[in-house]
Amino acid sequence: MSLVGQPWTLLVLRDLFNGVRRFDELADHLGIARNVLTRRLAGLVDDGLVEKVSYREPGQRARNEYRLTQAGWDLRPILLAVMAYGDIHLAGPEGPPLLLEHAGCGGSVVVRVECANGHPINPSDRLRALPGPGARYLSPTPH
Amino acid sequence: MSLVGQPWTLLVLRDLFNGVRRFDELADHLGIARNVLTRRLAGLVDDGLVEKVSYREPGQRARNEYRLTQAGWDLRPILLAVMAYGDIHLAGPEGPPLLLEHAGCGGSVVVRVECANGHPINPSDRLRALPGPGARYLSPTPH
DNA sequence: CGGTATCCTGAAAGATACTG
DNA sequence: CAGTATCTTTCAGGATACCG
Q1: Buried b / exposed e across A53-85, counting CB within 10 Å, b at 16+?
Q2: Integer angstrom CA distances of residue A42 from A67, A79, B22
């Protein structure tokens, strides 16, 4: 949550996922204060999710852009899950504000939860939680 | 993001998903200040994600518990996506702190992103974003 | 265009004490 | 056990101004 728990973070990442890469584009599209965007991007770079890259298109002057790292791209399923929720529960009667489709085949994007054996898992299906190898406490009752 | 963007919200929801339901259990397990927990739960109830329910077990006095609504359960994929990310990128060498398995078959839980035609979508696969029916602006260049 | 520096404000977190 | 009330602190966000 320290990575993605701040209000603007996931919105900035959304634009990066969608190909918006330059400072002013981000600021304009998001409507975020520019100094806040500066801080947010710096934080994302610190966390290793984004890289600031200078580049130059032929005949143009140098520009900066913000590119997702692999760790940044790996956050996309979280955003897709948030979008899916919003499309179901928060979209107006007109429907979702944004559609994403698989660039290869045009199919719409779905986030699916299932178990390793291929069974689909519905939102309120019971899951069993048990301590993993990295657990810091042994069990339900620590002390 | 207004629903799940606050620092404690998703952590409270996690415990609710995992069956922790009583105020003191939540407070103890999360290490959250009790007044903060009060506010957070009230917010979740306001947002329609959680219901506060009085119940009485035979021979016991009345207690309150906090139960997820359907809209609350529908947030679980978001948390599962966050967990999956953390297990890959943030877990120590020992491994993930918590394992979830399908109560039916014991298979571990996976979050999968794919397209409607069944093709798997990897983190950095290109997606096409286009305005949906509920879009508030017509296109990349509004004005 | 692509930022940084300053200052201010508001909201949420935390500590602490109290109540039925 | 299950909270509420008060107070303080911290910090992200916004406005604004400035710079190469």
Answers
A1: eeeeeeeeeeeebbebeebbbbbbbbbbbbbbb
A2: 12, 20, 39
What's the pLDDT tens digit per position in B107-141? 999 999 999 999 999 998 999 999 999 987 655 44
CA B57 to C1' C10 (Å) is 43
B131 touches chain A (CB under 8 A): yes
Q: Where are any strands of DSSP class E within A7-126?
A: 50-56, 62-68, 98-102, 109-115
At residue B2 the predicted structure's pLDDT band, cuts being 50, 70 and 90, is confident
- Structure-block tokens of residue B78: 């978001």
Indicate the angle between helix axes B23-30 and B9-17, nearest 10 degrees: 120
Q: Which residues pair with B53 in a beta bridge?
A: B65
Spanning CA of B59 to C1' of D14, the rounded length in angstroms is 56
Q: What is the pLDDT of residue A138?
A: 54
